Amino acid sequence: MTRSIRAASVVTTVTRLNPESMSDTRPPQSTRFHALYQGARFLTAATKLQQTPADEGREVAFAGRSNAGKSSAINAICHQNALARTSKTPGRTQQLIFFELDETRRLVDLPGYGYAKVPERIKLEWQRHLSHYLESRQSLVGLVIVMDIRHPLTDYDRQMLTWGRRAGLSILLLLTKADKLKRGAASATRLAVERAVADDSGQVEVQLFSAPERQGLAQVQATLDRWLHVGTPELQTPTT
């Protein structure tokens, strides 16, 4: 089993900061595009792939270990407090939760992994469903893998990364709770993760993020805009 990367805790010298490597802590501009996320609403919950919405349009899925901050990240991105809810028993939720942005775009909250004390048979069943969803869903264009910056790239994260690459998805590794580390240590951890996932099979983006501090929020929304073709005429919501 591959061990996860430990968050860097000591940075001896910092000679120069690359502006592109530091996340903008300012809130995103209030545009009609960001209003798209503010208008997100619950669409449906599916325990089986047959229960998912029609496989059309574009959707982005969020995956992550329980307690990594996935729900907080989704809520921050959508400027809502309780859109994505956290189960009282981490890892127990086995449903795919779909949120509608408009008639053609969706966000999907995948079941948390790697924590719940459930039978191994159920864990394997979750993995089978997730793998099938990621590899067969035609409308799925991107995968956000949410990781606690203090415990990045666990074996479960690497498995999700493998599935995403196999499916040819655009991938963003979201290092949450960046406010828990000093700036230098957070940047060093990000660089370590970038090196660890460097691969010729496809580009993987890595972003520092903090829901309470709104760090990285504008960058994540910009990535989602690109994946979801926000602003692309053929996918604009029809006006009445």
UniProtKB/TrEMBL annotation:
InterPro entries: G_ENGB_dom (IPR030393), GTP-bd (IPR006073), GTP-bd_ribosome_bio_YsxC (IPR019987), P-loop_NTPase (IPR027417). It comes from the Bacteria. Residues 56-230 form the EngB-type G domain. PROSITE patterns: G_ENGB. One of its GO terms (cellular component) is cytosol. Necessary for normal cell division and for the maintenance of normal septation. This is Probable GTP-binding protein EngB. It comes from Allochromatium vinosum (strain ATCC 17899 / DSM 180 / NBRC 103801 / NCIMB 10441 / D) (Chromatium vinosum).
